[in-house]
Amino acid sequence: MFGPRMLMGAVIGGALVYFLDPDNGARRRERLRDWWEQNREPVMDSAASAATTVQARASDASAKMNEKAQELGSKVRNAVPTR
User: Fold this and answer.
1) Which of 1, 37, 60, 75 has its CA at a distance of 20 to 30 angstroms from the CA of residue 10?
2) Residue 25: is it exposed, middle or buried by C-beta count within 10 angstroms (0-12/13-18/19+)?
3) What does the pLDDT look like over 36-80, one tens digit per residue?
4) Rounded CA gap, 22 and 31, in Å?
């Protein structure tokens, strides 16, 4: 019933309400902007490091899956009798 899309919609909607609030939204956006200016480099470095790790693991998993697929294909070709 409540899938990932529904959750993402709720998060985005909540963030919009929080930051576009007519009374306190400007102050909240300013605080976020200040925080981002102070923490941009560490956040971006962490994101780049995480992306590199994910790429390496995905590449390893892909290589293993290709190897297993080739093994399975070889077993199937050897098991099927030729006419």
Assistant:
1) 37
2) middle
3) 999 999 999 999 999 999 999 999 999 999 999 999 999 888 887
4) 15
Q: What total number of domains does the chain contain?
A: 1
Closest CA to 21 of 37, 32, 7: 32
- Do 22 and 29 form a contact (C-beta atoms < 8 A)? no
pTM score of the predicted model: 0.57
- Reading the block at residue 12, the tokens are 């985005």
Q: Whose structure tokens read 């962490």? A: 46
Specify the residue for token string 């070709």. Answer: 77
Domain containing 41 equals 4-79
